Amino acid sequence: MSSEISVADYVVGNYVMKLHNHYQALAKADLIVYEETCEGPSHDANWTVTVRVEGVAAQATSRKIKWARDMAARQVMTALNILPEGENP
Known about the structure:
By secondary structure, the chain is of the alpha+beta class. It has one domain (7-79): Double Stranded RNA Binding Domain (2-Layer Sandwich), CATH 3.30.160.20. The chain is 29% helix and 25% strand. The protein has 2 helices and 3 strands, in the order αβββα. The chain has helices at 15-25, 65-79, and strands at residues 33-39, 46-53, 56-62. The longest helix has 15 residues, at 65-79. It is globular and about 40 Å long.
């Protein structure tokens, strides 16, 4: 699954925390796996983060690791249909 959100338009929504809290409440937080890679020089790095949960994976790339993590977590939550009520996919 690739990012469908423009990085320029993206606002960090704490989806990493929301994903963790959801699975922590189910006592399954250990099911969340993050893979992070960085390409390019440190002053111009691009981070790619893949989040895997229960056989579902999502990947996002950004110059900021926090944004990449958050976008990937949001995509996983969307795919698993566990976005908090009122948040559009």
